[in-house]
Amino acid sequence: MRILEGEKVTKYFGGLAALSDVNFHIDEGEIVGLIGPNGAGKTTLFNLISGALVTKSGTIKFKDEKITGLKPYQICRLGVARTFQSVKIFANMPALDNALVGSFFGTPTSMSSADAAREAIESLELVGLSAARAIPARDLTLANQKRLEVARALATKPELLLLDELMAGLNHTEMAEAMELVTELRDKGITIFMIEHVMKAIMGICDRIMVLHHGENIAEGTPREIAANKTVIEVYLGA
Amino acid sequence: MTAFTSKRFLVPGLVSLILLILLATSPLYISSYNVILLAAILMYIVLTVSWAFFSGPTGYISLATAAFFGVGLYTTAVLGKALPLLAVVAAGGLVSFVLALLVGAITLRLRGIYFAIFTFGLVELIKHILLFWEITVTGTRGRFVVLVGNTTIYYVVFGILVLLMLTVYFVRRSKFGLAMQSIGDNEDAAAHMGVNVTLVKVITFAVSAFFIGAVGAIMATRWTYIDPYVAFNPLFSFLPVLMAIFGGMGQLYGPVIGAAIFAYLEELLLTKFPYYYMLIFGIILVVVILYLPDGLIGLIQRLRQRWQKGGLTGKHANT
User: I want to staple A212 with a disulfide (CB 3.0 to 4.6 A). Which of A36, A194, B44, B111 is the partner?
Assistant: First the structure.
């Protein structure tokens, strides 16, 4: 079943087409990777899905329901959560409170304080941050701040999780842990759509990869197909 | 656990209770001059805490305090004779509340300096609309206000302050307070975590305006005559900001202490050094902002930490 579907999604910044007529879909339970050179429009696409930006034309549907034009908080409550390329944590709040914001406000149905607290603690445990729950988010390492963003997103009980460069800036061990976390989340039934530059990560865990270039969807397929795709190689290696 | 809870809540609770009793009974044994001085101090505390309630956690610097205060003053000037006092005070609060809802809905998408400038513009805008109205429509300048006894004024301001402190205390501990703080920390992220950021900001802004308007409505009765220049004095926009910074914004009691000391200092300097008071005042402010970035509260916390550390090392080493 299609959990997310975009049809002719278009976005201009001034006269520049950041995305033009992009069609895409994500099936339930998939891990889909989104790659492309810098400025290809990857983050713009995420911003359109999460409601941070509004499309010029085209529609995005989540579980057959049109979400274009909705506000970010509404889209989050429908079940789409995200992380950010440059971390946007609540720096002055303890890790637990960061997750609490998600479980209090972002879940499809509103929860009691006790349930929200339990949900927040569980999501911190899932990413391995339960020991750091009382530490102000600004004092965490970058890797842990990224984990915290994932925990906060998970606390909203999403069905679809958008990960924007989760692996960037992590060392090898941290990256391996992050990859393991992503597959674990998929096994729990959360569909994953991830932007990534780290090829090893994307080739290792994605079921399907989509390639954007100059705001257009130029290729799509399994990791093996993408690795052998001539256009993709040209775009990346400039050959 | 009990020791922990009692230590954490007993002392502030007891201090608040004693203060509450002292303030509630003070008109019985202090002079009339001191009652009205105390009322003025409590008024500044209301303005400062209301301002900090919205601007502290959300990080949106509002300079609209004078606008809401002036709206409260004018509400009394217009309705003072027609309604009982408490109804007038409530009306002053409600008119400010509604004004803040409207203004907030339009302007709270502005961020940073733009919001501050707009809210300041609001003070001037309302002032000049009223001036225009008085010149062209009513043909008058200013209004006389009904008179009320000093003790009554004091108790109404005191009542507003108690209501405000309870509101702030409970909201800060609620889910709503968490949302306010998340907006101050990162508004984009808050919106993406399901927080209806516009709604939270507008409601907080309006609640803070309610208390500012209500205190304006009661203070109007002390001034006997008001006109737009008196009512919409920009100083009432800046003083709460200064008082909150002076006290420190990290804790609930920071703005309270800041406003109390600041207002008393102002009165003291004004009566003791009428010619140099602004000069001395200015110097004190500069010193506080330069050397106490976290306000008086920050200073107290630093001293306490040093004392605790000093106590420990003193026991173990003679350095």
Answer: A36
